[in-house]
Write a structure and sequence with these properties.
Length: 280
């Protein structure tokens, strides 16, 4: 009986050792997998940026990177999260906005690459055509410095609605207007809120990504659009931003390569019909 018990005990111990060995092997395998797959956390506006990133995500997976996309509905949090280290990169803004944000908030963010351009459009609110715009009409612009300048100059000025005292193209605000024959009341509104405010104003300039989110089509719904050959098109390309010093890391290079792939370019052209224009 003692011999039988000894055999059973030996078998049990052998089994335990084998289970432990397999578990150890599995643990090592898991650990190895984790090392092979590198994670990139990026902040983005829901549309078109997050949608474009979902396509780039597939390209990154081929290179051994897992892309986690965090969506933001405003233009402040994705930059503060990048500065604090909660994000590896963000993709939602153009370079003039990024530069102005750094100046205002004392952040240290830089562009790692330009991906696309979104033409601005003037959209109808209570007034359905520019010709029908009456004296004293209320027209809306984004309230942040660079996007207000872009709206005032490339949209309202270029439509002959106002004249400016000079050509300070990246800094003009409603204070720089020297001629306003229709006595238009220019209302400054937070960019994300403008699509919801269309019912309360006569016309408004809506930023590209917010127009897309609201179901507004620049090529079909806008009364006028920013000229694709303008300085605006060359200046306001949307960039991937990273913290200063991370522009040339392997992670950043892989992210830019994926976003500038032929797959992403085809997706942008097919999906957005001119409302988003690839710059690569």
């Amino acid at each position: 009986r003692k011999g039988q018990l000894k055999k059973e005990l030996d078998l049990a111990l052998t089994g335990a050792v084998l289970v432990g060995a397999f578990a150890g092997a599995e643990q090592k395998k898991d650990s190895g997998d984790k090392k092979e797959t590198k994670k990139i956390v990026i902040g983005a506006s829901p549309s078109p940026h997050a949608d474009i990133l979902k396509v780039a995500k597939k390209e990154l997976k081929k290179e051994g990177y897992e892309l986690e996309i965090k969506e933001y509905s405003d233009y402040v949090q994705p930059n503060t999260a990048l500065e604090s280290g909660d994000l590896d990169a963000n993709y939602f803004q153009h370079k003039p906005y990024l530069d102005d944000f750094n100046k205002q908030k004392k952040t240290h963010l830089v562009s790692a690459g330009t991906i696309h351009y979104e033409p601005f459009g003037i959209f109808p609110g209570k007034t359905k055509t520019l010709k029908a715009l009456k004296n004293g009409a209320t027209v809306a612009v984004p309230n942040d410095t660079t996007n207000e300048a872009r709206s005032v100059i490339y949209c309202y000025r270029n439509q002959g609605l106002i004249k400016l005292k000079d050509e300070q193209e990246l800094t003009a605000t409603k204070k720089d207007i020297v001629e306003n024959k229709k006595r238009l009341a220019i209302k400054e509104i937070e960019a994300a809120q403008i699509p919801r405010s269309l019912k309360d104003v006569d016309i408004a300039v809506v930023i590209g990504n917010y127009a897309l989110e609201a179901g507004l089509k620049v090529n079909k719904d806008a009364l006028a659009t920013e000229d694709a050959d303008s300085i605006g098109a060359k200046t306001y390309g949307n960039v991937v931003a990273v913290k200063k010093g991370n522009e040339k890391t392997d992670v950043t290079k892989a992210l830019i390569k994926a976003l500038k792939s032929d797959t992403v370019k085809k997706y942008i052209n097919d999906k957005y019909d001119g409302a988003v224009v690839p710059l690569f």
